Fold this protein.
Amino acid sequence: MARALAAIGVAAIVGGGAAIGYAATRKAQAGMTPTQTAAMTRAVDQLDSEIHAKHAAVKARAESFASVRQVRLASIADPTTAADMVRGGGDELKFTTQPGEVIELGQIVKATGKAQSLVIQPDGAAPRSHNGAPGSYAELIGDQIVLTEVARVEPVPNYEPERAAQFAGFLSVSQPLAIAPAVKSLAEVGIAGKLVLGAGELAIGTMPAGAATHEQALPAQAGAKLIVAEPAASAGMPLPILVAGAVAAAAGLLLLVLGMRKRAAAEPARQAFNAMATVPTRPPATTGIGRADTQYSQPAVAASGTPSSVDPSASLSIVPQNLGPGAMIGRWEVVRRLGSGGMADVYLARASGDGGFEKLVAIKVMHSHLARNQRAVDLFLDEARLAARIQHPNVVQIQDLGKIGADYVIVMELVDGVDLERLLMSARQGERRVPLPVALGILCRISDGLDAAHNATAPDGSPLGIVHRDVKSANVLVSRQGSVKVVDFGIAKAASQVHFTVAGETKGTPSMMAPEQRVGEQVDVRADVYSLAAVGFELVTGKAVNLDLAALAHLGIENWPHLPLPSSLAAGVPPELDEILLGAMAFERERRPANCAAFEAAIAAVIKAHGLTASDKDIARWVEGELRLLSPALGGTAPALSNSPAV
């Protein structure tokens, strides 16, 4: 009886306390509803993806115009002459602007550093060239983000040397990005706040006075963020629940006291029966595994199958804004975000084991809004399946492929370094040349990796027929240890892939693309040879190239690729490289080397003849030197720049 009274009393106290606690804390329970959280995630993903894509389009267009010979000639002319050259008739160039686009050609007076505009299209448009300083810019104007790319215009060698000594040319392209749809979707579900970019703000609904706020950065654009108000707390403390809880707790306390008194009275009689000592109970043995999160360990990627799905009951979908340090992606713990591309985010992550074991990887997480697009999913899966079949030290290795909830992820080998594009851009900005042995050593290693991809086979030994189709410096990672690795087979062509390119469809980077690929024809390994030679030209000369057929069509195919001899641009470059590099970029694919192995053999002969060998240590020393000098605009402040996505 005493024990029953005590048990009832304890239950009443617990129940009453829970009621009091619920009532007391009810006022503070505030937060987004599931609908609002989902809308926030969709809006961030949409804005991030659209900003990234628009940045890429504007940059490609600016670089394309800046490389046109007529623009290069006009960039050092006087304003009247420049306007005539750009707007004139006949064979003169005309800028054809897209809706809302502004194109400006200008020059900087070297003696004063002052920028002056030469031509703006359309006429009367406001200049947005940011004083001619090369780089990417974004401004929030009304309900649009205006994205601008300013490209340096290189003068034509030996043309008007006096004026070339006085002026430096630039070309800027600005395009608007409408953000009203994403913002409207937030307001429709009751989210209030604002989008902030620099000094600009765009209101979302009406921000309540004094409301607590939550910030969500947009990774694709530095300084851009959504600031939203936390939903208001529910009104008032529920008094009936509070009173009922207090009464129950008081009654429980009274019953507990009565029970304890009755038990105390019966204690002497009960002690006579306590002759046997009790054995204390032990907790169940632990497994020794630190975490029991969703397991994610498909040891191999099937050559033609679908990725193994993680048990949906064991893991919810990945929420991008929750993937901060310490978050789990399957069995991998996020260390930090490395970057974001048009198709996926990339995270530095680690797995820990017994004895202090730790393994670092790069995990590519597909943007959740693309998971509903079967074509995008096929592209993402094709990348992992194809790359997993390429086992070579000059190709980034795929370690795992899977699905967590509705999200697709690829686990990749971590490369402790930086992409070649940033190294080359940094060197150009500092007017430093890549040491020729290092440049040729990197080129040969890229060629090795591509040749391995081209000759990869299926489990049955049949050739996969892989063509990368997006060979460029941004898709080459160079480590601090001097290793060189090709990455990003996201748009690779292969006979066994699930996704097929539509006839006439163009994929890749126009500035590095072979002519047949640019017009949507079928491609083979010689398209990769072409792009590889373009990367080689940049490495050897230090000059950026733009071989976009659409931009250069007015020059015709004679003397293609319309580039000066490498030996004329950089001292010490053997003349043999002129024919090798420019020949590999021939307009007709039949005139190029048959494959990357043949191209590499020609480069290797030059290296041997001139004693230009570079070891991994030589490449590592150059990488370390450039990383120390890497400008903040190119990511130089980041403690690690590995596996940046170029997707």
Remarks:
- The radius of gyration is 32 Å.
- The CA atoms of residues 416 and 642 lie 5 Å apart.
- The first helix runs from residue 2 to 25.
- Confidence is low (pLDDT under 50) at residues 268-316, 495-506, 637-641.
